[in-house]
Design goal:
By secondary structure, the chain is mainly alpha-helical. It has a domain of 36 residues. The chain is 63% helix and 0% strand. The chain starts with a helix and ends with a helix.
Amino acid sequence: MTLPSRTLLLASLLGALAACSADEPPPPPTAAAQPAQPLPNSNVFSTDIKALNKAKDVQKTVDQQKAEMDKKLDDEGG
């Protein structure tokens, strides 16, 4: 490598490093993130949300029935 090409390579590398360095540190994150706003009652996802909530309620009922059945089995010694 000749001297001018080395100089050009060194200058370009130093320029790239200088361009990537930050002058000041980024600001600290805010103390608390804002909670998401609830979705309005009528929107594109309303039917999906209703179905999801219904499925969650059904799962709660099934879990409750299972807990009752497990308790009955434990009480009977089975």
